[in-house]
Amino acid sequence: MLLTITNTQPPATDLGYLLHKNPSRVQTFDLTFGQAHVFYPEAQVERCTAALLLDVDPVGLVRKRRGLSGEGGTLDQYVNDRPYVASSFLSVAISQVFGSALGGRSKDHAELVDTALPLEARLAVVPCRGGESFLRRLFEPLGYEVEAVHHTLDEKFPEWGESAYYTVTLRAHVRLREMLSHIYVLVPVLDNEKHYWVGEEEVEKLLRHGEGWLKMHPERDEIAHRYLKFRRSLAREAISRLVDEDNPEPDIAEEVHASEEEAVERLLSLNEQRINAVLAALKASGAKRVLDLGCGEGKLLRLLLADKIFEEVVGMDVSHRVLEVAQERLHLDRMSARQRERIRLIQGSLTYRDRRLAGFDAATVVEVIEHLDTARLAAFERVLFEFARPDTIVMTTPNAEYNVRFETLPAGKFRHKDHRFEWTRREFEAWANGVAERFGYAARFLPIGAEDAEVGAPTQMGVFTRHD
Ligand code: SAH
224 lies in a domain? Predict the structure, then answer.
């Protein structure tokens, strides 16, 4: 299986930086299903081509499978088209071998990542279930000029007719990461087969790699159905989440509503009490490397930076806009080099598994969970407790019972218009204890702000400690 990508914008060899692969070398990577080789058949200033050659080992695959489940290998397990065609193996190879390019990451060439280039991708053999018209319906709406050469089943026996295989060339002025994400999602859709079990995680992959284009795609539903291999409930979930995200300016809404929330809570300067309580819990845990998830404008980050105990501080938020504000308020650009090394701001969503979140001593999630759709809480739980898995998690959320004490808050209203829910103490504790139990943590609860005998404190805090 061969994929080539050609850049014709001088200096075309920038492709090497984008792919994080040196044009002057051949590199080989061991994957679970075989090997991937990356090399450059041409690397000139005007034209540079990178090739990804997959060497899928069908015998090894069957052996591995047999080792696991005791199944015998049938002939079609040994003799099939998988080694030769573009399939979900290609997607896995792209994510493993070109992962940084696919994720749009580049330390030294950030501007290049965001530059649209005249690119051409050529897939040597693609099985197109649904034919050339389906192939065009998938790629043309994304701006590609599509060239497809159909292959007969066997040249010696033309009467056997056409095969399902095409050589496909895609040309467009696009960012490399977009082109890779299109191929990543759409090749398995064309092939309509997956070599691995399709589970919940695939919904996240589809949404992550479909970000920015899948929602508007005319074949969106068909893509979701096929990608998720006709598991209807998964496809429905993916489609509803794509449709859900239609709010055009969430950042602006967030800003306006945040100031309303502050006004409601101002009397108590609840904000300060909350941050101090979180800080105290962090210190008690002995954490040195801390993640602040949903960091907003960075109020907690500022306190963490001021305390030398914390050696590494990372703030993450889904909103680019609040991250810009945080960057300014923390004066990141004027910081000493030593101080600057201690802090990073990253953009990301708490409902997507993210490798950057792994390996921290503690994570804080201050006034954030109530902004998540209840339908996405399960994803959030796994992202934080299963994948990021810090030793300590400190979480705060409003105590809904207390709302009756806010004079300016009409009855039955949430404190912030973007809150999707506000929990009573019992609701939060039931949820937190359930999560703790499922993921191997112990949870304890503390009130924040002046406690009212009847309705409790305005804010509730949960501190989770990992068992192992
Ligand atoms: N922790 C901060 C901000 C709380 S406001 C503080 O206490 O001041 C909630 C923040 O969560 C907002 O900045 C919002 O952009 C962020 N947020 C909402 N949904 C998110 C998601 N899915 N992933 C990451 N951040 C999210």
Answer: no
Last residue of a domain, one of 156, 175, 196: 196
Domain span at residue 58 reads 2-196
Same domain, 178 and 308: no
Q: Is the residue at 129 inside a domain? A: yes
- What distance in angstroms lies between residue 108's CA and the mean position of ligand 1's atoms? 28
Q: Are 106 and 113 in contact (CB under 8 A)?
A: yes
Q: Between β-strands 459-466 and 392-398, what pairing exists: parallel, antiparallel or unpaired? A: antiparallel
Residue 283, in any domain of the structure: yes
Amino acid letter, 272 = E
| Torsion angle defined by CA atoms of residues 430, 431, 434 and 440, in that order, rounded to the nearest 10 degrees | -120
Pocket flag, ligand 1, residue 349 (CB < 6 Å) = yes
Distance 296 CA to ligand 1 centre (A): 5
Residue 125's contacts (CB-CB under 8 Å, 6 or more residues apart) are 1, 84, 85, 86, 151, 165, 166, 167
For ligand 1, say whether the CB of 254 is within 6 Å of any of its atoms.
yes
pTM to 2 decimal places? 0.50
Q: Quote the number of domains for the chain.
A: 2
pLDDT cut 90: percent of the chain above it: 51
Mean pLDDT of the chain: 85
**CATH no. for residue 377?**
3.40.50.150
Residue at 371 is within a domain = yes
Dump pLDDT digits (tens) for 223-270. 888 888 766 666 666 666 666 544 433 444 444 455 555 554 544 478
User: Is any ligand 1 atom within 6 A of the Cβ of residue 209?
Assistant: no
289 CA → ligand 1 middle, Å? 20
CATH of the domain at 144: 3.30.1610.20
Using the 3D structure, point to which of 196, 213, 232 is the last residue of a domain.
196
